[in-house]
């Protein structure tokens, strides 16, 4: 007597509506974290996303998980923008500009400080996203330096710190008038990065490791 060979079951994929709900939650959370800070009530996020509280908790068991997803998604989108710019033009400085302006539009400077204050900054998902961002920006900067486009006395830490300072106000301040001038001031900063350098910078180039140890 022969026994039937079990048919392997296909892995269950999330339903399309479930994926849409998750994306709506992340989008609403990003908007409200920027407007009010990381302590905004989750039921308010659910209301803006147009879903029930149970849907929020089904996707994100706690606030830390939601904040982490928001920060990672923002970092992933900014690096993807830089990758697309580099692939489309091959111009490393143009890709660097695309990264900086996209990071400002995503309000990455308002979101990233949450990592320091609300949850484990060494979570694998967060570290993977951060490392991808740092590696890509570092590679673009190295390529721009090799092409003679970028001054040689700056590093990734210099860029990220300046972007954070120039594209604030921090989350929850309500000072949106500064948004009108963000891209103007970022472009002034970017023009100052172009080679040949017009001045000698004090101190030494700032790495991301320098920032983490500060």
Automatic annotation (TrEMBL):
Residues 41-60 bind DNA. It comes from Streptomyces curacoi. The keyword Transcription regulation applies. Residues 19-78 form the HTH tetR-type domain. Keywords: DNA-binding, Transcription, Transcription regulation. This is TetR family transcriptional regulator. The keyword DNA-binding applies. GO terms for molecular function: DNA-binding transcription factor activity; transcription cis-regulatory region binding. It comes from the Bacteria. Pfam families: TetR_C_43, TetR_N.
């Amino acid at each position: 007597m022969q026994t039937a060979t079990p048919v392997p079951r296909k892995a269950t994929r999330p339903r399309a509506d479930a994926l849409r709900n998750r994306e709506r939650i992340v989008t609403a959370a990003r908007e409200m974290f920027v407007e009010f800070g990381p302590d905004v009530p989750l039921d308010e996020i659910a209301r803006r996303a147009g879903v029930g509280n149970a849907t929020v908790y089904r996707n994100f068991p706690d606030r830390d998980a939601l904040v982490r997803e928001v920060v990672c998604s923002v970092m992933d989108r900014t690096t993807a923008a830089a990758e697309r710019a580099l692939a489309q033009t091959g111009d490393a400085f143009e890709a660097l500009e695309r990264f900086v302006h996209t990071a400002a539009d995503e309000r990455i400077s308002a979101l990233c400080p949450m990592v320091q204050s609300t949850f484990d900054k060494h979570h694998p998902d967060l570290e993977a996203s951060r490392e991808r961002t740092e590696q890509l920006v570092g590679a673009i900067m190295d390529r721009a330096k090799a092409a003679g486009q970028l001054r040689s006395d700056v590093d990734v830490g210099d860029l990220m710190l300046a972007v954070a300072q120039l594209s604030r106000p921090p989350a929850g301040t309500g000072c949106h008038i500064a948004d009108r001038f963000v891209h103007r001031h970022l472009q002034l900063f970017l023009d100052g990065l172009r080679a040949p350098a017009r001045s000698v910078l004090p101190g030494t180039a700032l790495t991301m490791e320098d920032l983490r140890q500060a």
